[in-house]
Write a structure and sequence with these properties.
homodimer; about 200 residues; mainly alpha; Arc Repressor Mutant, subunit A; Tetracycline Repressor, domain 2; 10 helices; about 0% strand; DNA-binding; DNA-binding (chains A, B); transcription (chains A, B); Homeodomain-like_sf (chains A, B)
DNA sequence: ACCGTAACACTAACGGTTATGGTTTAGAAA
DNA sequence: TTTCTAAACCATAACCGTTAGTGTTACGGT
């Protein structure tokens, strides 16, 4: 971004982009299962091996852009205003992400994803990776450090909020509803309740 | 179980069992990736197509037994003692399941699973199916009915508790820790807090 | 004894993915 | 400039999970 990238890197990026664009277009035109890797490669005018040197799998072609999902989440934790509480910051970010992927323009894409078991599976394990990153970011947050177990649980809950809300009738209301629960869980987890304190 | 099954069904069950046993043995001996479907079929002395008429995929060979996981969870909800609160019943069941799969005898199997991305992916989406069943069971529970969103969220949290605790150093303590959070989340979700009540 | 069909077999293919080995070309070094 | 290196790309063929197509056997009911 700072230094002018050489021709080589520009060409590489262009190739990658062309593959991604072609793939998405074909998938939406003919359906994910009806388009083969060889079709995509031919239409993008590259070799199959080249395609796989840019994307790890067929599914990765669809989620090309969702790698910054991870970054936005961790950023919401590490880059929030000083003294802003954790959970509301995460809630705002999840709201934004949900709004983004439930927008009308994204509808055909997500309909396609929901229709393909392979794509659903891929997304699920992608989200779990995101949850792990988020857990790390939460654990590194200054102030009272809860257990890593608590951090990992909260991170999972946040990801759950996203993927559940995405498929609800009123996504934003669902995010609010689930985050009220997460807030309560966080309070309990943060204070380490039960560890020889309120032994019930 | 009640009537004596005919020879046909016995033979079918025997074939299925032989396939499953052979597969698991080969997988543990040589590693999941190093064993092909054709190897398993040959060793079990069946055709490849026969193997796939018994198991939907290679991964399903490994999780053959885990189909009752789903049943045990929903049973823990629908079949619990009258007036026993929901969350503790679920906690007990998850404890049992975690204990079961962290037992020493199961260690090699789970090490294999954790080492294979394909198997992890398969397990993850299996768990999500389980979560949906659990959510349905919770929603059908008599008494005060929370939103379906709340039920689905709690179901996910419970599944999260299982899969997180499974890979912690002290699984049973982790289950307790996470369930304290789930309990709090459930209380908040159940009472519908925030819906024009405690608007904050 | 006969028939319908469930279980199984064999072959060949399909589609995602990878290994192999070769060609071009950007960009640094001489 | 010329030369060299390595990155990007290409073409081919194979591997492996999975499925379709097409029988063949033998169980269980009539």
């Amino acid at each position: 971004m700072t230094v002018p990238p050489g021709r080589r890197e520009r060409k590489k990026a262009a190739t990658r982009q062309k593959i991604a664009d072609t793939a998405l277009r074909l998938f939406l035109e003919r359906g994910y299962d009806a388009v083969g890797i060889r079709d995509v490669a031919a239409e993008a005018d590259v070799a199959v091996t080249t395609l796989f040197s840019h994307f790890a799998s067929k599914e990765a072609l669809v989620f090309e852009l969702d790698e910054d999902f991870e970054q936005r989440l961790t950023q919401a934790v590490t880059g929030r205003a000083p003294h802003e509480p954790l959970i509301p910051a995460l809630r705002r970010e999840i709201q934004a992400l949900v709004r983004h992927c439930t927008a009308d323009s994204a509808a055909p894409l997500w309909r396609m994803i929901d229709a393909s078991p392979a794509l659903r599976k891929y997304e699920e394990s992608m989200r779990l990776r995101h949850a792990e990153s988020l857990a790390t970011a939460i654990a590194a947050d200054p102030g009272p450090s809860p257990t890593t177990t608590v951090c990992r649980a909260i991170a999972r809950f946040v990801i759950d909020a996203y993927s559940l809300a995405r498929e609800e009738a009123e996504p934003e209301a669902a995010v609010d509803e689930i985050f009220r629960m997460i807030e309560a869980a966080w309070e309990v987890g943060r204070s380490g309740a039960g560890r020889a304190v309120t032994g019930r």
